């Protein structure tokens, strides 16, 4: 959800859309205290590295 990653040489580059549209489409977190703008939904493999990411914004 809203996370794109790619290996560029020896670097992992993650892209997250932080636009107003993406923030409006963000879903509430399980606790309801924040909104999840991006997540990998658990661990994702990039080569030999596993990454888990959650990007959140406060509820307004």
Defining traits:
7 strands, 1 helix, mainly beta, 60 residues, three-stranded antiparallel sheet
Plain-language structure description:
The radius of gyration is 13 Å and the shape is elongated. 5% of the residues are buried. A three-stranded antiparallel β-sheet has the order 3-4-7. With 60 residues, it is mainly β. The protein is 10% helix and 52% strand. The mean pLDDT is 94. A hairpin with a 2-residue loop joins strand 5 and strand 6. The chain contains one helix and seven strands; from the N terminus they run E-E-H-E-E-E-E-E.
Secondary structure: number of strands: 7
Q: How do the SSEs run, as a string of H and E?
A: EEHEEEEE
Give the overall average pLDDT: 94
**Which structural class do you get from the secondary structure elements?**
mainly beta
Main sheet: which strands, in order across?
3-4-7
Low-confidence stretches: none
- How would you sum up the major sheet? 3 strands, antiparallel
**Count of runs of 4 or more consecutive helical residues:** 1
Radius of gyration (Å) = 13 Å
Helix content: 10-25%
Approximate strand percentage:
over 45%
Q: What is the terminal separation in angstroms?
A: 21 Å
The shape is elongated
How does the SSE layout of this entry go?
Layout: E1 3-8, E2 11-16, H1 20-25, E3 27-28, E4 34-39, E5 44-46, E6 49-51, E7 54-58
Antiparallel strand pairs: 1-2, 3-4, 4-7, 5-6
């Amino acid at each position: 959800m809203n996370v794109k990653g790619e290996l560029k040489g020896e670097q992992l580059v993650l892209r997250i859309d932080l636009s107003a549209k993406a923030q409006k489409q963000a879903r509430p977190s399980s606790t309801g205290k924040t909104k999840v703008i991006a997540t990998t939904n658990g661990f994702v493999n990039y080569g030999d590295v596993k990454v888990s990411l959650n990007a959140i914004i406060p509820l307004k």
